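Supplementary Text 2. Reproducibility record for the structural model of the 297-residue chain.

All settings were left at their defaults, and a single model was retained for analysis rather than an ensemble. We include the record here because the model underlies the residue-level annotations in Supplementary Table 4.
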Amino acid sequence: MPGNEKWDVIPTRPANMAPPAPEFPWPAGHRAAMFLSFDVDAESAWTSKDPAHAERLVTMSFGGFEARVGTPKLLELLDQLGLKATFFITGWAVDAHPAMAENILKAGHEIGHHGYHHLLPDPGDPYIQDELDRGFETLKRRLGVVPVGYRAPFGESCDELRISLKQRGILYSSSWRDDVRPYRQVLPDGSPGVIELPPTSSYDDWMHGLSARFSPRSVFPKEHVLSMWKDELDEVRDWGAMVTTVLHPQVSGRPMRLRLLRDFLTYAQAHKDVWITTGAEIAAHYAACEAAAAKAA
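Retained model, structure tokens:
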């Protein structure tokens, strides 16, 4: 049909060739799981959208809140609740705020790779490999960490990135939004990729709790978000599945949002059948179940 040439190149197959996630049991009799994770972008959340924002100091202050207030408050909350989480950190944030990153590590939390400048890994972009390399180098140089987990900036992915993650020894990714359980990615050549721990879109606090001059929208009240988060968790418990949070210290580290998060995590902890843990723990459990299933087959 004339005029459809640009769409005719779209392959007639699912974007994700992996089968639906296997229903492996959760450990220690748990009924469901929560991957508790944070994205620490700091000011790189804003310069990745426009490098000129570096000179717009009030715009930059939205991200600067993370090191000054947000992350310390979240670390204090997690310590009070006895919880461990995964913090996906951009290399730029580690270089700019080394004390913040060191404090996350000292508190016993997992550090994950989140790019360097928080640049969108769009197919064909020339900086995909450099973003990976600089992120790995910074985490090793500043923190002595070789990460096993990766979350893509802006939550996007492409085949070049997926192949590179496997080649670099990454155990798991947490970017895709197409399942409620962990699964193994399938690469374009049919070989197994990394484990995917899919984020849960409703637990992205940026969508509900941040209003800025360049993204003006109303902030949702605590009651609305807490009700949504509770309902999602309750249904996931019935399914025996997993929720994955995508929380940002420049959002959930602010007073009203911290109170919301405290109430939600307290609610989740009251359900003793929910395994609340890091991405590394969940991915390791999945890998062990996968290996046992393959041996039994």
